[in-house]
Write a structure and sequence with these properties.
The relative contact order is 0.17. The protein is globular, with a radius of gyration of 18 Å. A hairpin with a 2-residue loop joins strand 9 and strand 10. Helix 3 crosses helix 4. It has 9 helices and 10 strands. The longest helix has 18 residues. It has a 6-stranded mixed sheet, with helices on both faces. The protein has a 4-stranded antiparallel sheet with strand order 2-1-4-5, with helices on one face. With about 250 residues, it is α/β, with parallel strands linked by helices.
Length: about 250
Amino acid sequence: MEKNDKIIRIKNLIASYDGNTVLDGIDLDIKKGEIFVILGSSGGGKTTLLKHIIGLLKPVHGTIEVFGKDILSMEHYEFDTILKKVGVLFQGGALINSMEVWENVAVPLEQHSDLSLDVIKEVVKYKLGLVKLGHAYSLLPSELSGGMKKRVALARAIALDPEILFFDEPSAGLDPITAAELDNLILNLKEKMGITLVVVTHELESIKRIADRIVYLQKGKNIFCGTIEEAKKAGIDEVDRFFGWA
């Protein structure tokens, strides 16, 4: 794939809950190597879209291509090969409280690789170093701050060197300084590892720091997709109000 190739392609995606349409004909391309941010009003379909892309939900209609392959027509074993190239960081971090930091980060390596325990530990040390948490190797999650827990979850999400990384509200619950540090880590990972990042967030400062492009969802429809500079010039009331330009 070239730098600007589409790593994710979504066509006419329609999704519903209990008969209510949540995503209404979404068309979207995400480019390899970019940070793509999904925005929108509450209930606009942001997290629903994310869950469809990673296969947690099935749509009523439409296609989702990841790495050029339609994931909706795949058998489970085929989709597993896609998932091994993908990392996910959910809002709460989902660390296992009874396990030390290194054990949490090691989980995907133990489940999806044939590496020896000694090699796994070395990989874990390297990943914790990338998120500046080498000193937390043997700590328990209960001994970590909120920001540190997010960084451990991030280290776990990149354990298998994914090509795409998905975030659901990475800065939720963090103070502005810690949120900025996490954003800088995200930018650093993009630079060092060449990862494509797909982020759901509503944090304005974070969006301005990290976004290469944004999509804005309103009542399940894609009403804008492009750069923040393009959004400023688009003259879309909902987007203007969100960013405070109105």
